[in-house]
Write a structure and sequence with these properties.
2 copies of one chain form a homodimer. Chain A has 2 domains: 114 residues, Urease, subunit C, domain 1 (Roll), CATH 2.30.40; 283 residues, TIM Barrel, CATH 3.20.20.140. The first copy, chain A, contains 14 helices and 17 strands. In chain A, helix 2 packs across helix 3, helix 7 crosses helix 8 and helix 12 crosses helix 13. Chain A starts with a strand and ends with a helix. The interface between A and B is large, with 76 and 76 residues.
């Protein structure tokens, strides 16, 4: 398929967040031209008049648990412990691979409505997740959710690593584990050895709550970051999800090892976990990406909300309205995520890059007047501005309609049936 | 005009946030029936199949400065003082009534996309604001923005009070002033006397920043709330916008006088002002409403973002995931605002109330599955869920189209022209 998008404003994100005018051409999965209007000696499957709207690279949701859609608004406004013990764990225990397949599709729909073109998904039943993404045409980087009580092994993780990195062009797999506090040391050491053997980075939940850090210090004498570093977990890079309660030493380890801090502000406020020190991370040159976390703890999968929160919470934490410039946040949501997820061809609109692209409706009141388009995205953008989401050269969402090989009504019905089944 | 809405889910907000099924009928400005499906011996101008979606009372934006749309994303990520002195004040000084008319219309469009059916608007040129609202069919409660350097007088405020409370059924006027720190004591005393004379409540920016409180204490020996109370400002009730840095004594005055605290969390994070003590206010029984503040400082006019922030920031402040239940937030955004603004007929879907109503699209991925519809609104709702906004019995926004007597393209063009003119 060959698409020509013309009459467009372009936020290519090749360097800064400046906006130009021109065209984008795509052929199959790739971008074959980005630049000023020009004549083409090509035949097109479709020529799309962008009408002055904005084309930009898709957002990367760099931390989520997609299939937790079944828990959305099931148990809010309760203390964290009660929520986990009485709601999340008992219902999760009944989930099947088939459930995860259907529930992941519901999440994919929502990603598309928010201009998210790929996710970094930590959940059980990786094959079900991969199948949901491939069936929808969505791009997913899987990451292992292993714990000491999950019933899976490091040998299986190694198999999954090879299997899913050759599974489909839309699927990648990263090593990972749930968190320091859910994995015993021999398991963590085995993961570190596997990372060295494969030359592969490792990701995990890190310092999400103050309690998890305090307990780690009690057990090991070190913070989670320092402890994991001490057993050689980060020789091949990787990163941490959340990274709320970080010491200066933790941040120095992140900097030295080139680890990405994936911030999840929506979840961190909803679960009262705290505010991540994003400005400090930026000043130290630590790579930063943004994730929604799962729909049980956020409860939505909306990069616009997350972007506003990244800068808003930093401003509150630092008591400085100039903290964490919106343009930096936009880079975290696009290239920061792409870097963490290993999607080096999904970070900008440029010839040779993959066609993971969104069209932003600028002719809505929240995007007017045209004082500053990139800041508008972060400060006043919303899902209602997403006119089109393209993944790997295929349009999956356009003008409120989904093109993902299944009807929305069917996906909603499946999700509601699964909830009824699980809560019986 | 007579409308029949059938096949609906109803969140009437008469009491709690429970959802029922049924119909809503409207005749001209009023609701004439809400309840289960039934036969009607009436002729209809239009019968609308709601298809299982949700009807609820419209949101009230209880603090804003609509015409500041011209400053949206004009000057972000800079210290508060620099922003005000170098950007806001010089450009505001050049605004004309005609500018305010056109810029207010752009804001009204955005309110409608977010399910907001009325606003509490503090800005210059009240007649231009009122004309914009009436021309669009939108409901506005004006409030005086007087300061000691605004060039207007308390006599003019009294005239405006009478004039705008008889101007049009969509317009009301409340006494007010910008803030304690921009008004000299004789002016404040004159406003307090006018309030007593008219039996009218008074509203103003209160304790938005720590500095404004500290400076008031230095000048008067009291906090802004205590000082204003000491000069008899609150004998007839009223309220404060922002209310971030409040002492226990301040809160007790709010409680005793029945004053509404209008919280503006989006603005408070973006300008690094702080987090309002919303849970404490709730526990004390202080009436609470929610406002977006103006588009220069937020930058969007989106009640969904504000609602999430009200509960999210409370959870962070209190370090408690159970703080400020989402259903309470929904009440603040609807009946709390209506109470503050004196719109006692706009607070619920009920026979005899005014038809200020929105239709929420529940068949979008962020509203699925149906675990808890009212919590979904607060935790995962977005502008993209607003299918219809009706004000005073007229549909002003439906399926992305505006019915406000002017074309969106014209309103956008006017706003962009005004910006070009002002920044010359």
């Amino acid at each position: 398929m060959r698409y020509r998008f013309y009459n467009a404003r372009l936020l290519t994100m090749e360097q800064d967040c400046s906006v130009t005018e021109g065209e984008v051409w795509t052929e199959d999965a790739a971008i074959i031209y980005t630049g000023p209007e020009k004549e083409a000696d090509l035949t097109w499957d479709r020529e799309i008049d962008v009408k002055g709207n904005l084309l930009m690279p898709g957002f990367k949701d760099a931390h989520t648990h997609s299939a937790m859609t079944f828990l959305r608004s099931r148990a809010d406004d309760m203390p964290l412990h009660e929520w986990l013990e009485n709601q999340v764990f008992p219902l999760e225990a009944r989930l099947t691979a088939e459930h995860v397949y259907h529930l992941s599709k519901l999440a994919i729909m929502e990603y598309l409505t928010s201009g998210i073109t790929s996710n970094f998904d930590m959940y059980f039943y990786p094959e079900a997740i991969a199948r949901a993404s491939v069936d929808c045409g969505f791009r997913t980087v899987l990451v292992s959710p292993i714990t000491s009580f999950s019933g899976s092994t490091v040998e299986e993780m190694e198999e999954d690593y090879h299997k899913f990195n050759q599974y489909h062009e839309l699927i990648r797999y990263h090593l990972g584990f749930h968190a320091e506090y859910t994995c015993e040391t021999p398991l963590l050491e085995a993961i570190a050895r596997l990372s060295e053997k494969l030359g592969a980075p490792v990701f995990n939940h890190n310092s999400e709550t103050r309690e998890s850090v305090e307990q780690c210090i009690k057990r090991t004498g070190m913070t989670p970051t320092a402890f994991l570093n001490s057993i050689g977990m980060y020789g091949q890079g990787g990163g941490g999800y959340h990274c709320v309660h970080m010491t200066d030493e933790d941040l120095k380890i992140f900097k030295d090892k080139g680890l990405t801090a994936v911030t999840n502000p929506g979840s961190n406020v909803k679960l009262a976990s705290g505010i991540a020190p994003v400005r400090k991370m930026m000043e130290m040159g630590i790579p930063i990406a943004i994730g929604t976390d799962g729909p049980a703890s956020n409860n939505c999968l909306d990069m616009f909300r997350e972007m506003f929160l990244v800068t808003g919470l930093a401003k509150i934490l630092e008591e400085d309205a100039a903290a964490v410039d919106a343009d930096e946040v936009l880079h975290m949501a696009v290239s920061g995520g792409a870097r963490a997820m290993g999607l080096s061809r999904c970070d900008m609109l440029k010839e040779g890059k993959l066609a993971d692209m969104v069209m932003i409706d600028l002719y809505q009141p929240n995007m007017q007047p045209f004082n500053n388009i990139s800041k508008n995205l972060v400060y006043s953008g919303s899902k209602a501005n997403i006119k089109m989401t393209m993944v790997n050269g295929r349009i999956l969402y356009e003008d409120g309609k989904f093109f993902i090989g299944a009807e929305p009504a069917e996906i909603y019905e499946n999700a509601n049936c699964i909830v009824r089944e699980l809560v019986q």
